[in-house]
Each structure stands twice: as structure tokens, then as C-alpha cells.
Design goal:
With about 675 residues, this protein is of the alpha/beta class. About 50% of the residues lie in helices and about 10% in strands. The protein contains 29 helices and 13 strands. The chain has a 7-stranded parallel β-sheet, with helices on both faces.
Length: about 675
């Protein structure tokens, strides 16, 4: 018996991609098509490497990885991009099409006739970029057709998925080395934002890339640092307390795009409902929802109609939204790569954003349980193999497509072990033997378990460190790090004075708690939803005199100031009249520093590029026009162009189409499509 896919012929070597030997053609396209004046760090090195051979590149989220294959595709055409999720493909293609790039995608949400049409257009060379999921290559005729047409460039996005040591290992990625061979070993670019040296070696090995060999593939490793992100950890034990903290946090940032990660589907549903009950427009997203509902939620978040998403890590790689202002983790992930990747969904546009992990030491025990469940012992491997030999198709060896749905993590390790044992086809989900007693090599499972436990220890160290959190991340990925970054909670001194050790007037504290009870009673709320005990302690300690000083207190935002700020100030003023001998309150330096940092990110990040006030009339008019235009075209606003481009328009005040071409982020295609409308908006504000 021989599964059908084993008979797919290996293609002749792909024709050498005639990529530019220097950067000038790329630089010209960068300016004219995308409106960017120069390459970012790493982009030029990747493009130079591709002119010589294959490349494995590690570049942080938001660093412009996609241009590393889009620009070559515009030069040589017929570029395949392997992307992990359907929604991610759609977002990327919409952005490229807005810039005038011929790109498309094929996935199961598209009608069969439309899939075939796009495929034929790509083979004929009329489309430069085709995005597909790795599962698509299980279709033998699809792969054979590509091989005959000749793929010029194979780009593997989120390449860490191919590695058992990567944080989001996916069995479907394991086939890509064999697929590459069947395509004739075209020029290949493997891209990821998170890969330590072991993961990079595994990526290269599984794709058949000879890194480190003279004339072989090159590595381009840029810094993983994201200076615009503020990393923080809050030590909070109970689930109810974490929910209250997240509710307060989101309510203090109305309208800003945010992601909240929770460990379980039930946790996602309950957190989303709690946010909605508190007046925050939040949607739930997890793998248990119907596909149509997941697509609806993701689309709503992408275009801005649902500002907050509560999700499991199923949402991890499916988001390409650049203006996410905060990412909150309700539970600690099992490894620092996963946390960095998920937190890195914030601030892809380069503007200030916050990444906060809620943590308790019990979180480590929960993650250990997940590790136990994800790594089957030899008895479980044998039982699964025997079951699969019974349910596999007797002619082709194929297994049911949903065979791994019940436990995706354990399924990934089972597939890896059985493929290492030669019992599964390297491309298809098909057995190569029906012998229930065939030998199984479980070594990879044992090694992976030890590796996962080591990564968990490092994640816990990040959560508990009193040093610089950014430095901990940089050191983990093998980079040199300064002792202090000045932009994480520890460096900002947010925990240096939590209010726990302050001396404060207990009678004033009691008065404030009594006010809280009265407010709770008349508003029919639980007292903790009014404010927490720590807030009362800080109020009694620092004794604010006005609304501005109230905003410097932990747990008090603008909504609470409007709601009951006058009552608090009146109580503090009355106490001070009764205690004229009281010492003046301390100056809350650490609290002020933290609050100022938080406030800077609430303004949706007016930092990168031109310095423009968020209430500038022209900026507001341009933003309103962009939103209306995006709704008309059914695409996210950022797919047209970013906030930075709007700020540059305000600063430069262009009055002609030629002047528009000199604005950052506007290329010829965008100026041709939108230029006259933009000029009309500018003239309308001036009138």
C-alpha cells in the first residue's frame, strides 16, 4: 500500500530567480509604490541575501517583514507566501491591493470556481503574489501545477511553526521541506518574529536550507526590541480580582483597540461578558466558535467596530491590525516566545502601547498541567497509533481531516513522533503502514517535554523579576541588554510604592470606604466596582486637592473623577480642616511617573513621525474621511494608510499631487486613487 501523495514527482530544479543584485530597483519601488523613503533595519540585509540565495530572517513584529518578499515578487513574479491563518491572509492582501500590488489568496472560504480562477491567474503570471495555508499543499494537483509553472520565490511566514521547539508548532508546517523539494527548491525566505538559535536551526534543517555552509543560505537576525511597548506585570491572585482590574483598565481607555488573552474558552466568554456588562464593547474569540462567527469577530476588530477582543491564543497569529494600543494577559503563557509574540500584537504602527501580564505563582502550576497533557507517554502514543491504523482509509492511508481537533497540542506531538518513526507521510495526514505494532520512536516527545519545562521556568522568571523586563526579553533571545530601559513597570518604579507600606490616616481611610459604600448602594454596584482598597489607601496617603491630582491616584480614571470625584475631594478637604496639625502628604513620584507613561499611550500614540495634536482640525477631518472611505470599500482604515501618514499630511500641508508624493506612506498608487480627495479635505478645512 502506498498513499497517493507519495507518487507525486519531484520537480526539476526551479529556474534561478533573477533577483536584483543591488537595492536600487527595490528602493525605487519602495518609494513609488509604498511611499516609504528608506528601508527599515533588516529589510535591506534580507533583500541583499536573497540576491545570493536562501534566507532565514528573524525580525520583530511591526518591522516590515512582508516587504522582504513583496518587493522581490514585484520584480520576478510568481511568489508563493505560506501564511498560517485565513484572516491574516485577507488583511495582508487588502493592504497590498490598496497600494496597487497584484496579490491574492486561496482558502476554503472562497467558492471552488473562484479558487480555480485565482490559481490560473497566478500560474499565468498575471498575479505576482499568492497567499496559501500550508494545508493547501496536501492537494497533489495544486503542488504539481505550481512546479510546472515554476515558482520564483517561496516565502514561509511565521516560520517558527515548522519547528517542534517553536512556541506555536503546527504539524501542517512539517510538510514544507518536502513541498519545497517538489517545487524544485525555489529561492526560499523563512520569516519569523520569534526564534532563538535552536528554533532557527530547526527551521533551516526542516526546510532543507544550508545555513552556515559556503554558498548556502544566510541568516538575518535583527533586534527583537520594540521600544514603543511598555511591559508590565501586575501581581493579582484571584480570577474575580483579575476581571475587575481588566474592566477598570479597559474603561479607562474608551475606544482604544485592545486585546485580552485568557487561558480557556470559558474564561474568554466570561471575561467578554463581564466587559460588556461594564459598558465596554468587547467580543469573544476562540476555536470553539463557528468559523463564520470567528470571521465576523475578527473582521469587526480589524475595521474598528469592535474595539476590544477577548481571545484564547487561537487569535495569536490571526491579527495584522497595526493600531492595537494594549494587550492584556489574564493568565501567564507557558513560554516567553508565546508571550512576546502575543504581546507584540500591540503597537505595530510604532506608536506607544502597553503590554501587561496579570500573574500569580499558581499560574506556573496550571502551565505545568498543560505541558503534562500535551506530551503523551509511550502507552498513549501506541494507543493512538493503533486507533489510527483502524480508522485510516484502506486505499490511501488518509486519516479523517478532523482527527486532531480534540487536543491540538497533543496531536502536534503525536504527529511529530509518528513522522520521525516513518509511520506518517511527510506531506499528507496519511499512515504509511497498517501494522498496529510498528516500532514508535518517542525520543522527540521526551526531549520536547524537557524543553517546554525549561521555557516555563524562564517565563516565570520574567514575571517575577524586579529588574528590567525588556532586558529579560532581549537576553532570552540572545541579545545584549542595558540594565534599565526606562519604559517597563520596574524601570518606571510602578511597584516601588504600591501603597501597601504607606502610613495613612486610618480615620480618613474609613471615611473614604464609607463613601464607597454609599456610592455602591445608590448605583446598585458591588463596592469593589466603585474603587478598590488600594485606591482608598492611596487617596488617604496622598490627599489630592483637585481633579488633576485625583488622576494621579491608582485606580482613579477620568470616568471616576466625573462620577464621584467631588465627593472624594470634599471628604479629604473636610478631614484636613479637622486636622490642621497633620503633616503634608508625600509627593507620589512613582505613581505620577507611571500615570504619565500610561496617559501617553492613551492618546493613541502621537509620537512617531510628525508631532500633531490629536484634536487638530485637519487631522480629525482626514481621519474621518479615511474612515468613511474605508467603510465604502469594505476594508480596514489602516489598509488605506496609517495614522502616521495622516500626521505627515497635517505637518506638510501638501497642495498638489506632486507634493502628496513626498508624504511618508503615500506612493503613486495611493496618490492616484485618493490624492484629489485628500487635497479636497485639506482645502475644505482651510476654507
Amino acid at each position: 500500500m502506498q498513499p497517493s501523495l507519495l507518487a507525486v514527482p519531484v520537480a526539476a530544479p526551479a529556474p534561478r530567480a533573477e533577483l536584483p543584485s543591488d537595492l536600487e530597483p527595490y528602493r525605487k519601488r519602495l518609494r513609488e509604490t509604498f511611499g516609504y523613503p528608506e528601508f527599515r533595519d533588516g529589510q535591506s540585509r534580507v533583500l541583499e541575501g536573497l540576491s545570493r540565495g536562501d534566507v532565514v530572517a528573524v525580525m520583530p513584529t511591526g518591522s516590515g517583514k512582508s516587504l522582504c518578499y513583496v518587493l522581490p515578487a514585484l520584480e520576478v513574479g510568481r511568489t508563493i507566501v505560506v501564511s498560517p491563518l485565513i484572516a491574516l491572509m485577507q488583511d495582508q492582501v487588502e493592504g497590498l491591493q490598496a497600494a496597487g500590488v497584484s496579490a491574492t489568496f486561496i482558502n476554503s472560504n472562497i467558492a471552488r470556481e473562484e479558487q480555480n480562477r485565482r490559481y490560473r491567474e497566478f500560474l499565468a503570471g498575471r498575479i505576482a503574489l499568492l497567499y496559501v495555508a500550508p494545508e493547501r499543499f496536501a492537494n497533489a494537483s495544486f503542488t504539481t501545477g505550481l512546479a510546472k509553472a515554476g515558482v520564483k520565490l517561496l516565502a514561509v511566514d511565521e516560520a517558527h511553526c515548522i519547528s517542534e521547539w517553536g512556541h506555536n508548532f503546527r504539524p501542517d508546517y512539517l510538510q514544507l521541506g518536502t513541498v519545497r523539494t517538489r517545487l524544485g527548491n525555489p529561492r526560499t525566505l523563512a520569516l519569523t518574529a520569534t526564534a532563538n538559535p535552536q528554533v532557527r536551526r530547526d527551521i533551516a534543517q526542516r526546510l532543507g536550507l544550508d545555513v552556515g555552509v559556503p554558498g548556502g543560505a544566510s541568516e538575518v537576525i535583527t533586534t527583537v526590541d520594540r521600544p514603543n511597548l511598555t511591559y508590565a506585570v501586575e501581581r493579582i491572585d484571584g480570577v474575580p480580582e483579575r476581571r475587575r482590574w481588566i474592566i477598570d483598565y479597559a474603561r479607562d481607555r474608551p475606544g482604544l483597540a485592545g486585546l485580552v488573552y485568557a487561558r480557556t474558552r470559558r474564561g474568554v466568554e466570561e471575561m467578554a461578558e463581564a466587559l460588556r456588562s461594564a459598558g465596554v464593547h468587547a467580543e469573544a474569540y476562540h476555536a470553539g466558535l463557528p468559523a463564520a462567527e470567528r470571521s465576523r469577530v475578527q473582521r469587526a476588530f480589524t475595521i474598528g467596530s469592535a474595539p476590544v477582543i477577548v481571545a484564547t491564543n487561537a487569535f495569536g497569529m490571526g491579527i495584522d491590525k497595526p493600531d492595537v494600543r494594549y494587550v492584556l494577559h489574564m493568565n501567564m503563557p507557558g513560554r516567553l516566545e508565546a508571550y512576546y509574540q502575543e504581546a507584540g500584537r500591540a503597537g505595530r504602527d510604532g506608536d506607544p502601547s502597553e503590554c501587561t501580564l496579570l500573574y500569580a505563582r499558581a499560574d506556573r502550576r496550571f502551565q505545568q498541567q498543560f505541558i503534562d497533557a500535551a506530551h503523551p507517554d509511550e502507552a498513549a502514543l501506541r494507543s493512538t497509533w493503533q486507533h489510527w491504523t483502524r480508522i485510516a482509509d484502506r486505499d490511501t492511508g488518509r486519516l479523517p481531516f478532523n482527527v486532531g481537533d480534540a487536543d491540538p497540542d497533543q496531536f502536534a506531538m503525536i504527529v511529530a513522533a509518528l513522522r520521525d518513526s516513518g509511520l506518517l507521510d511527510p506531506v499528507a495526514l496519511a499512515v504509511t503502514s497498517f501494522d498496529p505494532n510498528a516500532p514508535i520512536d518517542a525520543t522527540s516527545v521526551l526531549h520536547h517535554r524537557a524543553y517546554a519545562e525549561a521555557r516555563l521556568r524562564e517565563m516565570a522568571e520574567y514575571a517575577e523579576t524586579t529588574g528590567c523586563r525588556r532586558a529579560a526579553i532581549l537576553r532570552y533571545f540572545g541579545e545584549e541588554a542595558p540594565e534599565a530601559c526606562g519604559n517597563c513597570d520596574n524601570c518606571l518604579g510602578r511597584h516601588a510604592d504600591s501603597g501597601e507600606g504607606d502610613t495613612f490616616p486610618e480615620d480618613l481611610y474609613d471615611d473614604l470606604i464609607a463613601i464607597r459604600e454609599r456610592i455602591a448602594m445608590r448605583s446598585d454596584r458591588d463596592p469593589f466596582r466603585v474603587f478598590e482598597n488600594r485606591t482608598a489607601r492611596e487617596l488617604a496617603t496622598y490627599r489630592p486637592r483637585d481633579a488633576a491630582a485625583l488622576l494621579e491616584i491608582w485606580g482613579i480614571g477620568e470616568t471616576r473623577v466625573r462620577w464621584f470625584g467631588s465627593e472624594l475631594l470634599a471628604a479629604i478637604e473636610a478631614w484636613e480642616r479637622e486636622h490642621p496639625e497633620a503633616a503634608p502628604p508625600p509627593v507620589p513620584v512613582a505613581v505620577q511617573t507611571a500615570r504619565q507613561s500610561s496617559s501617553s499611550s492613551r492618546n493613541a500614540g502621537f509620537e512617531a513621525g510628525a508631532d500633531v495634536r490629536p484634536d487638530d482640525p485637519l487631522f480629525m477631518a482626514l481621519r474621518a474621511w479615511r474612515s468613511e472611505r474605508a467603510r465604502a470599500e469594505g476594508v480596514p482604515a489602516y489598509a488605506l494608510f496609517s495614522d502616521r501618514t495622516l500626521r505627515e499630511l497635517v505637518a506638510q500641508h501638501p497642495t498638489s499631487l506632486g507634493a502628496l508624493l513626498r508624504v511618508w506612506g503615500l506612493g503613486e498608487s495611493r496618490v492616484t486613487r485618493f490624492g484629489r480627495e485628500i487635497l479636497d479635505v485639506i482645502r475644505g478645512v482651510e476654507a
